Amino acid sequence: MTPGEKWAWVLSHKQRGGQRFGKGDIWGAADCYCRAVKLAITLNSKTRRKPVDEASKDVLDEEDDEDDDAASTPCFEKENEQAESPDVSIPTEEEYKTVKAELHCNLSLCQLKLGQLGKSRDSSIKATELNPTSTKAWYRLGQACLQLGELEESRMAFGKILELQPDSASARTALKEVNSRLKDLDSKLGQRLSKMFN
């Protein structure tokens, strides 16, 4: 399978996952996103360096130069014409990272809904590493950590959302819940310590 074909399958699985999620088939959606992630991993070093517009312009410039050479050389033939043109079916590095981050983010939501909290946290972490400005990924990381009882990590994730989107009401509400739980935890710990030393 060529890199272009693999990329087409990645996008197809991503789209199918979204459709299944929309119909309430969380397991099916998670399966589609997992398949897409596995295929995307095989494309790790097979991305284009330039967006299509820039790459096409470079190829056109090269062809113009070659046409000038052809005018002076009567028996000129273009060799490897296909090798020079960019394969537009292969993603750029930026497209690859964006789609892979979205896949991990969507997979994280499925895992959260399926009660796979550790996996959801791990998928969210991967999404935030690929796209540190994704508020959805940070929110899902915060939710997973909150449900796992990892309150400091949850507070950090919701705090990151407020750095990116200061007016996010859902992040403010979630952060209040985390801070309330941390306060209760500190209070209970204080009571236990006082009982130990009395």
UniProtKB/TrEMBL annotation:
<feature type="repeat" description="TPR">
    <location>
        <begin position="135"/>
        <end position="168"/>
    </location>
</feature>
<feature type="compositionally biased region" description="Acidic residues">
    <location>
        <begin position="60"/>
        <end position="70"/>
    </location>
</feature>
<dbReference type="Pfam" id="PF00515">
    <property type="entry name" value="TPR_1"/>
</dbReference>
<protein>
    <submittedName>
        <fullName>Uncharacterized protein</fullName>
    </submittedName>
</protein>
<keyword id="KW-0802">TPR repeat</keyword>
<dbReference type="InterPro" id="IPR011990">
    <property type="entry name" value="TPR-like_helical_dom_sf"/>
</dbReference>
<dbReference type="InterPro" id="IPR050754">
    <property type="entry name" value="FKBP4/5/8-like"/>
</dbReference>
<dbReference type="InterPro" id="IPR019734">
    <property type="entry name" value="TPR_rpt"/>
</dbReference>
<feature type="compositionally biased region" description="Basic and acidic residues">
    <location>
        <begin position="50"/>
        <end position="59"/>
    </location>
</feature>
<dbReference type="Pfam" id="PF13181">
    <property type="entry name" value="TPR_8"/>
</dbReference>
<feature type="region of interest" description="Disordered">
    <location>
        <begin position="49"/>
        <end position="90"/>
    </location>
</feature>
